[in-house]
Amino acid sequence: MSALARQGAIRTIGRGFGTRCGMEDTRKAYLVVTAVVRDPMAMVAYNRALAASGLYARHGGRYLVRGRPVVELEAWDGRAVVVAEFPSRAAAEAFWAEPEYQERIKPLRKDAGDFHVAIFEAAQ
Fold first, then answer.
1. 2: exposed, middle or buried (C-beta count within 10 Å: 0-12, 13-18, 19+)?
2. What does 61-114 look like in DSSP terms, one character per residue?
C-alpha cells in the first residue's frame, strides 16, 4: 500500500502494471483530471496559485494537455481535461499528497465544479 493510500489521500484500485518482483517501476505516470467547471473565476485563482507554487516542476511534472477538446468526436460531455506527465507513479502521488497542494491550493477549487482525478501508468 502506498503512503498516500495509508493517509487516505488516494484510493488504490489495483496494482495496475505496478512493480514486479520487488523492483521499482520506472515508467512514467500521468495525472489525468476531467472537469465540468461552474465557477471560472475560482478556477483562475486555483490555476494561478498552482502555477506560482512550482509544485508540478518540483515533482518532475509537466502539462501535456490542458483545456477543452478542439474537436468533439463522440459523446463528449463538455468536460475540460488536464493531463500532466510525471517521471513515475511515486512522483505523481507525491505531488498529489503535497501539503501545500492539499491544504492551500486544492481548496481554491472547492465548489468550482465537478472533478474526476486519477493517476495512470504509461504502457510498456
1. middle
2. -EEEEEE--SS--SS--S-EEEEEEESSHHHHHHHHH-HIIIIIIGGGGTTSEE
**DSSP letter (8 states) at residue 123:** P
pLDDT along the chain (124 residues), means of 10: 53 49 74 96 97 96 95 91 97 97 97 97 89
Distance CA 10, CA 68 (A): 26
Residues 6+ apart with CB under 8 A from 78: 36, 68
Burial class (CB within 10 angstroms; exposed 0-12, middle 13-18, buried 19+) of 11: exposed
For the whole model, what pTM was predicted?
A: 0.79
Contact between 39 and 47 under an 8 Å Cβ cutoff? The reply is: no
